[in-house]
Automatic annotation (TrEMBL):
InterPro entries: DUF4142, Ferritin-like. It comes from the Bacteria. The keyword Endoplasmic reticulum does not apply. This is Putative membrane protein. Keywords: Signal. Residues 35-170 form the DUF4142 domain. Residues 1-25 form the signal peptide. It comes from Prosthecobacter debontii. The keyword Signal applies.
Amino acid sequence: MKSYKMITLLAAFASLGFLANSIQAEDAKSTVNSTDESFVKSASQMGIGEVQVASLGVRKGARADVKELAEKMVTAHTALNAEISALAKSKNVAISTVTDPSDTETLKDLENTDTGDNFDKAFLAELESAHKDAIALFEDAAKDSADADVKNLASKALPELRSHLDMIQAAQKK
């Protein structure tokens, strides 16, 4: 009986060791450095929030140009999110599909903003802020990324992100 308990105990320890090694292997699975991995995760998270905010703009925007801009943002950021997801998959970077808590708060605030001019102003201000943050993030990756694919994606996305910011700022002046 004692030898059975000892064998069971040894098997349990061996299983724990195997499990620990499996967990470490999962953590080390990414094929990019931590800075590039952080960029991919952040860009993905920003993109999810951007599509959700833009979708709200499509639904609640008062002015036709604001709704049209929101539709462009949904289309463009959905496409960029697909590129980021493909890159993440190819580099074994686990990305979240859950909305970031700060984006959830932003969505709640915008949802609770009156429709009409008040909503349009708050919506455009949020888009402007989000695009400035995204441009800074993508500029850093385009300049400093160690991975050629990450650097390429960031560099390729920057002109469109800057164009979005220009369109947002033009809409704010109307």
